[in-house]
Input
Amino acid sequence: MSRIMSRIIPWPSARTLARKKAFLRAICLPAGLACCVLATGLARAGSGPQPQYRVHAGDVVEVSVAGLPELRMRGAVQTDGAISLPLLGALNVAGLTPAEMRKTIQRALAQKIYRQHAPDGRELLIVIQPDEVGAAIVEYRPIYVNGDVAKPGELTYRPEMTARQAIALAGGVDIAALRSQNPAMEAAAVRGEVDSLSIELAKADARLARVSAELDGKEALAALKLQGPAVSSAELTRIRQGEDNIMQARLVDYRRERDFLRGSITQLGERTTILERQQREEEEGARADTEDLRRMIDLLAKGNVANPRVLEARRALLLSQTRALQVTDGLLQIKKQSTDLVRQLQHFEDNRKTELLKEQQEAAATASILRIKRDAALDKLNLLSLARSRLSVDDASKVEIQLVRKENDASTRLTVDGDYPLDPGDVVEIAVKAH
Output
C-alpha cells in the first residue's frame, strides 16, 4: 500500500521575509523603470497615453505552477469572458488587466491540493501557494488590415506592434504591389483574353444566327451584327463564311433526305393508282366470269351445253377471283408503305426542328456566358488601366491610416501615424491619396 505524504509549507521566518522583500525590490525596480520608459515611448509614438490592455474573448491564457510542469496549461477566453482549466474551473477574467488576471488566478489556485505520483509509486499531496502560480496571455486576438495593401486580411498580433509593422506584414501599400505585379504586362494578357473572348463570342453569335436562319427556312446567312469590341472584318468574314458553309452542307443533306422520302411517297402513290385500276379490272373480270358460269349452268340444265364447258367456266372464275385477291393484297401493302413513309417524313421534319431548337438554346447560352466573361475581362482591363495611372503617383503620396478600435461595446475611429501602437482586435484601414 502506497504511503501518502503531505508537503506542508512552513510559515517563513522574519529574516527570510526580509530577504525576500529585498530581492523583490531589486527585481521590480529595474522592471518598473523599464515599464516607465516603455510607457513614455508609447505616449510619444501615439497621440496620447494608451489605456492598459484588458483581457478579451479570444485571448489565450497560459497558467503554470513552479515545480509542477505537468500543471502548465493553456485555455482560450470564451465569449462569456470565462476561462476553463483543470483545478481552476470556470473563472471570469474578461475585462481584467493582465496583472489583475494573474492575481485572480493566483487566488483561485491558492491552497489547492494537487496529487502528484512519485517515481517510486508514492502519492504526494502538494499544496499550491499563490507565489508559485504564474499566468500570462500567450496569444492575443488577431488584428485586421484592409484597404490599399497588397495582402489585406487577418494578422497575428504581437505585443508592441505598430501600424507601420502591420502594413509591412500585409505586403505594403498597393502602389508597391502594383509595381511588383507589373500592371502593363497583366493588362496585355487581359487584352489578349478580351480579344479571344470577342472572337469566341462572334463565333457563338454566328452559330446562333445560322440556326435561327435554318429554323426560319432561309437559304443563306445574313450579315453578322456584333456588339462590344469589334472583331476585324477579315475575321468576321471568315466566321460568317464558315457558318454559311455549314448551313449549305446541312441544307443539302436535309433536302436530299427529304426529297428521297417525298420521291418514295410519290412512287408509291403512282403504284397505288395502277393497282387500284388493276383491282377494278380484275373485279369486273370476276363478275363477268361469274355471270358466264351462271349462264353455263342454266344451259347445262336445259341440255344445251356439255359438262366440260361448265367446268371450264368455273376454272376461269376461280382464276379471275385469285388475281383480284392478289391485286387487293398488293394494294393494301403499297398503301401501308406509303403511310409509313409519310409518318417517317413527318418525324424527320419534327426531329430536325427539335435538334435545331436545342442547338439554338445551347448557342444562346454559350453566347450569354461568353458575353459575361468578355464584359468581366473588359472591366478588369479598365481597372488595370486605372491602376497603371496610379503608378504615376510619386513616393511622397500620403498614406492615410484609419484605426477602428472597439472598447466597452463602442467603436472608435482614429486617424493615426505609422508608429501608433496597436491593440489586439484593432482594424487598420489604409488609403493612399496623392497630393
About this structure: The first helix runs from residue 14 to 45. The chain has a mean pLDDT of 78.
